[in-house]
UniProtKB/TrEMBL annotation:
Organism this protein belongs to: Eruca vesicaria subsp. sativa
Pfam families with a match to the protein in the record: LANC_like
Binding site for Zn(2+): 276, 321-322
Family: Belongs to the LanC-like protein family.
UniProt GO MF annotations: metal ion binding
Keyword rRNA-binding in record: no
Record's keyword terms, sorted: Metal-binding, Zinc
Protein name: LanC-like protein GCL2
Length: 403
């Protein structure tokens, strides 16, 4: 199991001191304002590399339009860079890339934010709104309204109803309330709850869902991701109780280590510590539940999951989905929820590890850069996004997951 992650030898906050010749320890001991300057500079350099590799060298042809592994992830990174630096060139290039993604995704039957047409239209509308282009905003909104959900669509985040619902909520945040009507959001929510209750009959959890025959627990395809998005909508009291009950079922059936199984069918293998499967994605959902429901049990469980991430989450992969970049967001979410400096230190530690050693480990093959090495969810695009988010931790949000 240890071949999946680096041993985390970095000290906790109270033990951190600068050491001659140890560049990582010196980063950890650095005042946050100084470190954030280094992270921002590295993020902007990485952003340029990502743009060149995914857009500049491709002849501006889009083969994979998705946020997850494709060119939309580059547009999303540029949108975040624009939010952080207010560089109008980033927004302009974001809109150019979106135009190509729009053409490439026009016939797609996938409807979600991370892997489908909704991501292109929702981000397109948000970027058009920021640029003040009303005609373009109207175009992307009209395109979004043409997206239809099939009757046999699953309910998970990457390809299902919840991924479409998240796109609706993103639009309402970045374009304006009721851009997607509460009626539409209500209809989708009711269908998700209905299917979750139906599959959970005779089970211990109030809600359950399947994707390709497995009842997953994680953020990408399972319970954690579905509960996370449901907590962003207005739930009826009985629906809120079902969400809470589902999360408590997961807490009560976690591994003794504090980690979580990948699925109902895989309740014995305690080895995945990823956003997509395992403690990191579930921790983000539990911290959100503590804020939404005000119950300490969720915050305590989120903190316990974060211990797993600290001990086993320094993965030999770089990305957001299953790598160090994504796992750092666990500590950022707990820092926002609690204000405790120890969590900011741990996020700083994961980011500093990447800043200090990431490129060297990738070049030596000791850390995996993903099948799409410049993408947002698998590659260094995710590392750049994390570094931008570290500039102001109070505004950090896991891309495509935390609103």
């Amino acid at each position: 199991m240890a071949d999946r992650f680096f041993n985390n030898l970095m000290p906790d906050l109270s033990q951190t001191v600068a050491e001659d010749g140890d560049s990582l320890m010196n980063l950890l001991a650095m005042p946050y304002s100084s470190l954030s300057h280094h992270l921002k500079r590295s993020a902007l350099d990485l952003k340029e590399t990502v743009v060149i590799e995914t857009w500049g060298f491709s002849g501006q042809l889009v083969h994979d339009f998705t946020l997850y592994s494709g060119t939309l992830g580059t547009a999303f990174l540029l949108f975040r860079a624009y939010q952080v630096t207010a560089n109008a060139n980033d927004l302009s290039l974001c809109l150019q890339i979106l135009k190509a993604c729009d053409a490439a995704s026009a016939s797609s039957r996938d409807v979600t934010f991370i892997c489908g047409r909704a991501g292109v239209c929702a981000l397109g509308a948000a970027a058009a709104k920021r640029s003040g282009d009303q005609e373009l905003l109207n175009y992307y909104l009209a395109q979004f309204h043409q997206i239809k959900l099939s009757n046999d669509i699953p309910n998970e985040l990457l390809y299902g109803r919840v991924g479409y619902l998240w796109a609706c909520l993103f639009l309402n945040k970045y374009v304006g309330a009721e851009t997607l009507s509460s009626t539409t959001i209500r209809q989708v929510t009711e269908e998700i709850i209905k299917e979750g209750r139906s599959m959970a009959k005779n089970g211990s959890s109030p809600l359950m869902f399947e994707w390709y025959g497995q009842r997953y627990w994680g953020a990408a395809h399972g319970l954690a991701g579905i509960m996370h998005v449901l907590m962003d909508v207005q739930l009826k009291p009985d629906e809120a109780e079902d969400v809470k009950g589902t999360l408590k079922y997961m807490i009560n059936n976690r591994f003794p280590s504090g980690n979580y199984p990948a699925s109902e069918e895989d309740m014995r293998r305690d080895f995945l510590v990823h956003w997509c499967h395992g403690a990191p994605g579930i921790a983000l959902t539990l911290v959100k539940a503590a804020q939404v429901f005000g119950e300490r049990e969720f915050l305590e469980a989120g903190a316990a999951a974060a211990e797993v991430v600290w001990n086993r989450g320094l993965l030999k992969k770089v990305g957001i989905c299953h790598g160090i970049s994504g796992n750092a967001y666990v500590f950022l979410s707990l820092y926002r929820a609690t204000g405790k400096s120890e969590y900011l230190h741990r996020a700083k530690a994961f980011a500093s590890f990447l800043l200090d050693r990431g490129h060297k480990l990738l070049s030596k093959g000791e850390m995996h850069g993903g099948d799409s090495p410049y993408s947002l969810f698998e590659g260094v695009g995710g590392m750049a996004y994390l570094f931008l988010d570290m500039v102001d931790p109070s505004q950090a949000r896991f891309p495509g997951y935390e609103l």
